[in-house]
Amino acid sequence: MLSKDSLADFQSVLYSRFQAESDSGPVELKLTEVEVKQASPQAEQFSLLLKGPEAPFLPQQMYRMNHEQLGELDLFMVPVGKGKDGFLYEIVFNRLVTG
């Protein structure tokens, strides 16, 4: 299990694959972008953009995500767009930085 969910953790696995557990089985997603929204010594605000297949569509909700390096994560994912070959999903983080 990922202990921090930090910006650096996700930047280190950019372009790698995640599996989201859904009602129709595991769905493979590719991490295509890690965007810093704001950062300060006290907090990190960033988002992940993941690309998924055309089917199945994953609605907005919590998902158990699995990653080879990061392990299991429970994350809230939102669909944000559709391209010609699949859907785009976003996960947003607002977290306090601890010493």
UniProtKB/TrEMBL annotation:
<dbReference type="Pfam" id="PF21880">
    <property type="entry name" value="DUF6916"/>
</dbReference>
<dbReference type="InterPro" id="IPR054209">
    <property type="entry name" value="DUF6916"/>
</dbReference>
<feature type="domain" description="DUF6916">
    <location>
        <begin position="7"/>
        <end position="93"/>
    </location>
</feature>
<protein>
    <recommendedName>
        <fullName>DUF6916 domain-containing protein</fullName>
    </recommendedName>
</protein>
